[in-house]
Known about the structure:
The protein is α+β, with helices and mostly antiparallel strands. 35% of the residues lie in helices and 27% in strands. It has an eight-stranded mixed β-sheet with strand order 18-22-23-30-27-26-24-25, sandwiched between helices. Strands 2-1-7-4-5 form a five-stranded mixed β-sheet. Strands 8, 9, 10, 14 and 15 form a five-stranded antiparallel β-sheet that branches.
Amino acid sequence: MINITFPDGAVRQYESGVTALDIAKSISEGLARKVLAAKVNGQVVDATRPVTTDATLQLLTWTDADGKSTMWHSSAHLMAEALEALYPGVKLGYGPSIENGFYYDIDLGDRTISEEDLKAIETKMVELSKKNSEYVRKDISKADALAYFTEKGDPYKVETINELPDGSITFYTQGGFTDLCRGPHIPNTGFIKSIKLTSIAGAYWRGNEKNKMLTRIYGITFPNQKELDEYLTLIEEAKKRDHRKLGKELELFMFSEKVGLGLPMWLPKGAMLRERLQRFLQEAQLASGYLPVVTPHIGNKNLYVTSGHYEKYGKDSFQPIHTPEEGEEFMLKPMNCPHHCELYKGSPKSYKDLPVRFAEFGTVYRYEQHGELHGLTRVRGFTQDDAHLFCRPDQVKEEFQKVIDLVMYVFNSLSFTEYTAQISLRDKEDRSKYIGTEENWNLAEQAIIESAAEKGLNTVIEYGEAAFYGPKLDFMVKDALGRKWQLGTIQVDYNLPERFELEYIGADNMRHRPVMIHRAPFGSLERFIAVLIEHCAGKFPLWLAPTQVKILPISEKTQAYAEKVADLLKKAEIRAEIDDRSEKIGKKIRDTELAKVPYMLVLGEKEATDNIVAVRRQAKGDLGTMTMEQFTALVNEEVINRKPIE
C-alpha cells in the first residue's frame, strides 16, 4: 500500500500501481469524468500513469491551468492526426500548447494551406475526437525511434531525436497517429468537444532564420460549445481593441520598412501621449528622490563585456559597430544599467550618500527576429522607464518596498487594478546561466520574497525566470479582456556592482559594495502604451488623451465663436481642436465618438449669443449647457485628480 496526500492535507492509502484516474473514480464517477491529468509530487503526468510510491496528488480538471495546457497539447496531436489524414506526406515539426490554445509547425512541401482550409481540418478533428481514442504512452529506444521516423520520412523528428539521450524517449499514440512526445496527455480524445483553428502563420524551424520556413497553424479547444462561443466573442472584442488597428485610426504611431522593421515612429498625437506618461512618472520620481540622467545610445563593446551582457546576448544582438580606429568597437545600447554603473563610479561615494537613484527614459535596441515582431509589444527599439538604485545592504528592503509603492501608484492611476506579482527566481537545478555567488543570490531572493510578503502582494513563484544577474519581481497585469501582460519589473542585483567594482566608504571608513536595484514600472513605453490602448480600447483617461475636447460649430455662423472657445481652452491648458468641416452636426458627433475624444462642445447660434457651450461626454451623451468657466473647472478637476478610465 502507498500513501496519497491530497491538496487539503488528507491522506488515503491505495495499492501500489494505482492511477490518478482510479483514485478519482474511488472518490466520484463525476469527478473522474472531469480529470484531464494529474500533478504527482509537483510534476504534471498522465492521469493513467501508475503511481508506485508515496506521493502528493492533485487531480487536474479544466479549471486548472495545467489541465487546460494538457488538453491543448493533446489537441495539437489531434490536429496533426487530422493533417496527416487530409495531407498525406505532411512533415511535422513542433506542436506545443501555448497560453491560449496550441499550434503545430508543419512542412507541406509544395502544397499550401489557406484560412479557407481550416474548416475542413476542424471537421476532421471533430470526427476523430468522437472515436474516444486513448492517448497511449510508450518508452522507446533511440534506435527504434530513429528507425520509425526515418521510415516515415519525418526529418524534423529525426533531427530532434538525434539530440536526445537514449533512455529518455517516449512516443504517444492516439488512433492512427504516433508522435515523439514527453507528454502528458488527456485520457482520450473524447474530452475535446469544441474546436476552432484560429490562424495560420509562418515560422522558421527552431526559430532560426537560416532554417526552412514552416507553416504554423494555431487553434484552441474547449470541453463545450458555450465556452468556445464566449472565447470567440472575446477574440472579436480583442480585434476591435488591437493596438495596431487603433494606433493607426487614432494617428498615434507608424512603421516604415525603409526605416526598419520593429522600429516604431511616433506621430504627433502619439508623441504627446508618450510625453505625458513620461512627465507623470518623472514627477513621481522627483518627489521620491530620483535623479534624472541621460546616457548615449551606444557604448563601447567592453562595457557590455564587463557587465556580462555581451557573453549572454551578444550573438543575438545587433552586431558591433566598427569605427575607423582599428580594433575599436561600439554597440547599440541593449540596456541602460552598465551606463548607470559607470555614472555611479564617476565620483567617490560615502555611506551617507546612499541610496543613489538614477532615472532615465533610455532608448535601447535589441534584435528580434522578423517573425517575433508584433506592433509595439515586440520591437527592436524601445524606451525603458529605467532607474537604478545603489544602496547599502541594510537599505535594500526599504528601497525595494518604495519601488513597489511607485508601481502601485502607476497601475492605480491607469486603472490596472488586477495584477499578480510574479517572483522570478533561478532554475532549481541549472545554475549555469546565472552569474554571481550563491550567497548573493540567496540574499537577493530573500529580499524580494520578504518585501512582497510585507506589502501583501498576491504572488506566485516561477523558477527559472530570473535575469542572469539577479531575481525579479515581475508584475503580471490583467487587462479589461482578462488577458495577462508582463509590465512593471523590479530586480535585486548583487552582481553588477561586483563586476564594475562599485564602492562606497562605510561608517567604519572601509570600502564596501553597494547593492543595485533595477526597476521599470512601465517596463517599456512602447509595450505599456500598446497594453493601455487595448485595455481602454483607445478611450484614454482625460489627463492622457491627445485631444481632450473637440469643438463642433453647427454652421459657419458660429465659426468665430468656436475660435474664441478654442483660445480660452488653450489658455486654460486644455487640448482642443475645431471640427470646421462642412458636415452636418450629427456626422461630426459620430466621427468625434469614433475618434474617442472625451469631450465635445456643440456650438449653435444660441450658445454663441449666450456665451455658453453645449457639452457632450464621450459614450455618455449630453451633459447640458455650461459657461466656459464651469466647463474648464470640470475638465481641470478631472485632470488634476487623474480620474480613472471609465
